[in-house]
Amino acid sequence: MSIDNLRSALPAWAKDLSLNLSTLSRSSTLTEQQQWGTFVAAAAATRNESVLVQVLEDARAHLSEEAISAALGAASIMAMNNIAYRTRHFLGDAYENERMGLRMNIIGSSGGVEKVDFELWSLVVSTINGCERCITSHEATVRGEGLSTEQVWEAVRIASTLTGVAQAVAVVETIG
C-alpha cells in the first residue's frame, strides 16, 4: 500500500507524522469518498509529487475516476481562488466590490460529485493554502450540508498531516 510507502520513507524524527498518517488512513468519521478525496486534494495541495503519487495509488482503490478528478479539480481551483480571495482581503475595502473575473465553473458543478464532498475538499485545500475567507466560507457550507465539527476537523487533520509528511519527504529527498 502506498500510504505504507510514505510511512516507511519518513525518518525517525518524523515518527509522529507516520503514526498520524496510519491512523487517519485506517479509520474515519467521513464517508470513504470524503476521506480519500480529502487525501487526494490535500496531497495535490502540498505540491509534493512523491506524496501525490503515493496517495493516488491507494486512493484509486477507494474512489471512482470522477471523484479523483473532482478532488484534483478542487485542489486546482482553490489554488487560484485562495490567492485571489486572500489578496483581495489583504488589500482591504477598496477591492471588496471588484468583480473576481475568474472562471470557477467546477465549483457550481461540484466536479460531478456531491456538493458536500467537493466543498470539503475545497476547505481542506484552503486550509493548506491559508485563506481565511475561503476556509470559513467552505466550512459554513459543509456544516450546512450536515457535516459535524468532528468530520470537518478530521479533514483538517488529514490536511495537516499530509502537509507535514510532504515537508519531511522533501527534506529527505534533498539531504538524504
UniProtKB/TrEMBL annotation:
<comment type="similarity">
    <text>Belongs to the AhpD family.</text>
</comment>
<keyword id="KW-0049">Antioxidant</keyword>
<dbReference type="GO" id="GO:0015036">
    <property type="term" value="F:disulfide oxidoreductase activity"/>
</dbReference>
<feature type="domain" description="Carboxymuconolactone decarboxylase-like">
    <location>
        <begin position="100"/>
        <end position="172"/>
    </location>
</feature>
<dbReference type="GO" id="GO:0045454">
    <property type="term" value="P:cell redox homeostasis"/>
</dbReference>
<feature type="active site" description="Proton donor">
    <location>
        <position position="131"/>
    </location>
</feature>
<dbReference type="GO" id="GO:0006979">
    <property type="term" value="P:response to oxidative stress"/>
</dbReference>
<dbReference type="InterPro" id="IPR029032">
    <property type="entry name" value="AhpD-like"/>
</dbReference>
<keyword id="KW-1015">Disulfide bond</keyword>
<comment type="function">
    <text>Antioxidant protein with alkyl hydroperoxidase activity. Required for the reduction of the AhpC active site cysteine residues and for the regeneration of the AhpC enzyme activity.</text>
</comment>
<keyword id="KW-0676">Redox-active center</keyword>
<dbReference type="GO" id="GO:0032843">
    <property type="term" value="F:hydroperoxide reductase activity"/>
</dbReference>
<protein>
    <recommendedName>
        <fullName>Alkyl hydroperoxide reductase AhpD</fullName>
        <ecNumber>1.11.1.28</ecNumber>
    </recommendedName>
</protein>
<dbReference type="InterPro" id="IPR004674">
    <property type="entry name" value="AhpD"/>
</dbReference>
<feature type="active site" description="Cysteine sulfenic acid (-SOH) intermediate">
    <location>
        <position position="134"/>
    </location>
</feature>
<dbReference type="GO" id="GO:0051920">
    <property type="term" value="F:peroxiredoxin activity"/>
</dbReference>
<comment type="subunit">
    <text>Homotrimer.</text>
</comment>
<keyword id="KW-0575">Peroxidase</keyword>
<feature type="disulfide bond">
    <location>
        <begin position="131"/>
        <end position="134"/>
    </location>
</feature>
<dbReference type="Pfam" id="PF02627">
    <property type="entry name" value="CMD"/>
</dbReference>
<dbReference type="InterPro" id="IPR004675">
    <property type="entry name" value="AhpD_core"/>
</dbReference>
<keyword id="KW-0560">Oxidoreductase</keyword>
<dbReference type="InterPro" id="IPR003779">
    <property type="entry name" value="CMD-like"/>
</dbReference>
